[in-house]
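Q: what sequence does this backbone want?
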């Protein structure tokens, strides 16, 4: 793959200034084109989601972000709703999804869904921030025989990058381990019918890309600011300059669970 980075500044301060000036609302990561790469899972979540939506009668997309993944579906069921809790994303998702007839519901990040029992025969989600406490609510709003279909962030996603700034994180991602997630699914009264995990290579080609990513994914290094981590950023910048891209991993899980019916 050819990386076109001719337009990218090379000095530490210029890279910082450019990354800090870039807008970060929503989940559009196109600013990173030419500055970072990430392998994609083999299963093609958006295509599989679209196929399931086309056959549903009522569906809900949880934590839809800016709605861009959901908007990629070719056909929606007669009833299509989505939720989002992060205020900057709510406005963007509303603008994108309303013209397609999707009802966007602004929620909190607490595991409570403002829908009736058995309201949906399909619930989807791509990269929910946290799904652990949501399983009982997911089970509640599904019809008997209904399906939850999602792509989750797996355990230790971007751990090498996180530990570069925060130090060792023993036990990080324990609640996202496949077996732990399976147990939560079953405790909520659902049946896990498919669960796949893939480890995917991620490369950052300059320190500006790292800063931009940390500004968007605010829970990765919760106290991140350039001033607070300037020394570590300078170390990482020098390492990239001397040794090449910073390499970490994204771990993705495909999850399909069914409510007995």
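A:
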């Amino acid at each position: 793959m050819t990386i076109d980075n001719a337009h990218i500044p090379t000095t530490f301060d210029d890279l910082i200034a450019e990354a800090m000036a870039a807008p970060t609302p929503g989940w559009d990561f196109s600013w990173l084109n030419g500055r970072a790469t990430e392998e994609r899972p083999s299963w093609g979540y958006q295509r599989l989601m679209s196929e399931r939506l086309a056959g549903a009668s009522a569906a809900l997309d949880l934590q839809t972000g800016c709605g861009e993944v959901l908007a990629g579906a070719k056909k929606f069921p007669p009833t299509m709703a989505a939720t989002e809790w992060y205020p900057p994303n709510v406005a963007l998702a509303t603008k994108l999804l309303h013209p397609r007839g999707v009802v966007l519901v602004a929620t909190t990040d607490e595991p409570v869904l403002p829908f009736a029992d058995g309201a949906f025969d399909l619930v989807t989600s791509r990269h929910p921030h946290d799904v652990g406490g949501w399983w009982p609510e997911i089970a509640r709003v599904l019809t008997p025989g209904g399906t939850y279909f999602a792509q989750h962030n797996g355990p230790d996603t971007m751990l090498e990058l996180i530990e570069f700034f925060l130090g060792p994180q023993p036990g990080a991602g324990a609640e996202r381990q496949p077996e732990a997630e399976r147990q939560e699914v079953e405790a909520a009264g659902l049946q896990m019918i498919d669960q796949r995990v893939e480890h995917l290579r991620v490369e950052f080609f300059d320190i500006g890309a790292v800063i931009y990513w940390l500004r968007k994914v605010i829970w990765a290094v919760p106290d991140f600011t350039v001033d607070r981590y300037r020394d570590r950023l300078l170390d990482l910048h020098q390492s990239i300059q001397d040794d090449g891209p910073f390499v970490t991993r994204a771990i993705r899980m495909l999850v399909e669970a069914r409510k007995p019916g």
